[in-house]
Design brief:
Elements (H helix, E strand, L loop, with lengths): L5 E3 H12 L4 E3 L6 H9 L4 E3 L3 H15 L3 E5 L1 H17 L3 E7 L15 H5 L6 E3 L6 H13 L6 E6 H5 L1 E3 L23 H13 L3 E5 L1 H5 L3 H11 L3 E3 L14 E4 L7 H8 L2 E5 L20 E6 L2 H5 L6 E4 L2 H8 L7 H32 L5 H10 L6 E5 L2 H15 L6 E3 L10 H11 L5 E6 H7 L3 H6 L5 E6 L4 H10 L15 H7 L3 E5 L2 H13 L4 E6 L6 H6 L10
Parallel strand pairs: 2-3, 2-4, 4-5, 5-7, 6-7, 9-10, 9-12, 10-11, 12-13, 13-14, 15-16, 15-17, 17-18, 18-20, 19-20
Antiparallel strand pairs: 1-8
């Protein structure tokens, strides 16, 4: 008689994720999760131990965004509370991170068990699926359910709670495998096929349009259709804009890419959107960034079409004139057969982008000349441009912060017009959560180990999540951190100075923090830069050091166009 081996619930969990093909797991090791960690060890699955659970969540999120595959963040019950901000960030970008809590005992649930919290209820509004496993024999089933929720339709984070008594209990190793689906490996994600009638209605609008444009969102990224998007732009000569804060879909050097659909960070987008007679929003939501589809962002006379690959995403877009449930790739394939181009309209947007770049280049040259003449600190836009000039075509750029983020969005558009190529760009999502930069840079390095990865971080953003550089040192993943150091939360200071009656700022200043010495003291490479001419040599030494490095650059606080535009009236909130 053959006897089935018995293993702990934690190892059943690990085996279920191994069967799905999980390549990356992140944790802060704790007693509640030890059986799962033993299982990962037995399965020979790599696990990165992090200095904080929020960092583990951001690392998982970063890997998911780059690989477009689910990743795992494993935390204890109190660690779950620390991971909630990372859950929020993943939710904003629809990143398929699977958060697993080794939770308090099921047997004494509701009786004040050790570290008992209602993690399922807390996670529910920030995830697509949040469930507690109450039967160890169903562990594999619940992993399969969570995986399906994370990857199908509009992807997003999910949460599973595995009580510690189930985690430690023993079960037959093939328990729960006598029911369908017998094969629980990763499967092809179902895709929505368009209604032919609605598709033809949209194609008729496209053919009749004189000034059409595309606004692309991260639904295109998660469906892996960014190359089709580029083909549409180039073949039809149709200008393409990117939703702010979302995953970059096209390189800034792409001929069809014009910039962000943001009137403040990229002024020509206002002219284009206001003059367009047809706006095709693909993989986007009509949220606050798009003014919910309303004027003055999209004029009343403009036909607004929303194409989304899932009903969850499409439900947000009830204000569209025409809605189409369709995989973006299927929609782009139909567009490519339209048999028409818009050369004059396309060339006009190209010329506007060229003029915009010229204006900024003239402006920053004058600013930098004055900096040198008067002994002022470096302009943050000049910092972004100088850093990119030292990067290769396949290197990764990450930026994090308030004004630091906004200035670098402008810098990548300027540099891209000049032909600068990058392997990838990462930054906070639409919740503007500071502190993700170092974790995202580590994720980029772990998935692209032979490329340079450079993070430009505001000093406030680095203070929010900079401790995660310990994971870079521990895992021997050297990244270069360039700190835009203006000694405070400058973005907030500038808003306050326009909002407060006395014209001053309050509770936003930092002391002069030697970030470079801190990283050097923990085993990395550190340098202080106080003048522009010192930057490039220091940056080259940092990237050549083979260590996680910090170039601490003293910059002056300069208000970015978006902060200036959104904080110019005292009687309105700074975010309006």
């Amino acid at each position: 008689m053959n006897e089935t081996s018995r293993i702990r619930g934690g190892e059943l969990l690990a085996r279920a994720f191994q069967e799905k093909g999980v390549k990356h797991a992140f944790t802060l090791a704790g007693g509640f999760c030890n059986p799962a960690l033993e299982g990962f060890m037995e399965c020979q699955m790599p696990v990165i131990n992090c200095p904080h659970e929020q960092i583990a969540g951001h690392l998982a999120d970063g890997h998911a965004r780059i690989t477009r595959k689910p990743t795992l963040c494993l935390v204890g019950p109190e660690g779950f509370a620390n991971a909630v901000p990372a859950m929020l960030e993943a939710w904003g970008e629809r990143s398929p991170v699977i958060f697993v809590t080794g939770s308090s005992t099921l047997k004494r649930q509701g009786s004040g068990g050790f570290k008992e919290i209602d993690d399922v209820a807390i996670a529910a509004p920030l995830t697509k699926y949040s469930m507690q496993i109450t039967d160890g024999e169903r562990i594999s089933e619940f992993v399969d359910r969570a995986w399906t929720a994370a990857t199908t339709g509009y992807p997003g984070p999910v949460h599973l709670a595995l009580p510690v008594d189930i985690m430690f209990s023993s079960y037959d190793e093939d328990v729960g495998r006598d029911e369908r689906p017998f094969d629980r490996s990763d499967r092809e994600v179902p895709r929505a096929w368009p209604d032919p009638t609605v598709m033809e209605q949209i194609m008729a609008k496209v053919k009749a349009a004189e000034r059409p444009l595309i606004i692309g969102g991260h639904g295109i990224w998660w469906s892996r259709n960014e190359e089709k998007l580029e083909e549409v732009g180039k073949s039809l000569r149709m200008p393409i804009f990117n939703v702010p804060y979302n995953q970059k879909l096209l390189g800034e050097e792409c001929e069809a890419y014009m910039g962000l659909a943001d009137f403040h960070q990229y002024h020509p987008s206002k002219q284009a959107i206001h003059e367009a007679d047809l706006v095709l929003m693909v993989g986007c939501r009509l949220d606050n960034q798009m003014n919910f589809g309303n004027p003055p962002f999209i004029p009343e006379q403009t036909t607004l079409v929303c194409v989304n690959g899932s009903h969850e995403e499409l439900d947000y877009n009830f204000g569209a004139d025409i809605k189409l449930l369709s995989d973006p790739g299927a929609f782009f394939n139909k567009l490519l057969k339209i048999g028409k181009t818009w050369d004059e309209w396309f060339d006009l947007q190209r010329q506007r982008r060229a003029d915009w770049v010229t204006e900024w280049n003239i402006h920053i040259a004058a600013e930098t000349a004055t900096d040198l003449k008067d002994g002022r600190k470096m302009h943050p836009l000049q910092l972004g441009l100088d850093v990119q000039a030292e990067m290769g075509d396949e290197d990764w750029l990450v930026f994090d912060g308030g004004n630091t983020h906004f200035w670098n969005e402008i810098a990548v558009n300027i540099a891209g017009w000049g032909g600068q190529k990058l392997g990838g760009i990462m930054h906070p999502g639409n919740y503007s959560l500071l502190g993700v930069g170092v974790s995202f840079a580590i994720a980029a390095k772990n998935t692209n180990p032979d490329k340079n990865v450079v993070l430009i971080s505001g000093d406030g953003a680095f203070l929010s999540g900079g401790l995660s550089f310990e994971a870079a040192l521990q895992e021997n993943l050297p990244i270069t951190i360039v700190i835009d150091n203006n000694n405070g939360l400058d973005c907030i200071s500038q808003q306050q100075e326009r909002l407060f009656k006395n014209g001053k700022h309050f509770a936003t200043d930092f002391r002069d923090i030697p970030f470079h010495s801190m990283i050097e003291g923990m085993g990395g490479h550190g340098e202080l830069v106080e003048k522009r001419e010192e930057l490039v040599p220091a940056l080259r030494r940092a990237m050549a050091s083979g260590k996680t490095a910090c170039v601490n650059v003293k910059c002056r606080g300069v208000i970015s166009p978006i902060v200036a535009a959104t904080s110019d009236k005292r009687d309105r909130a700074s975010i309006e």
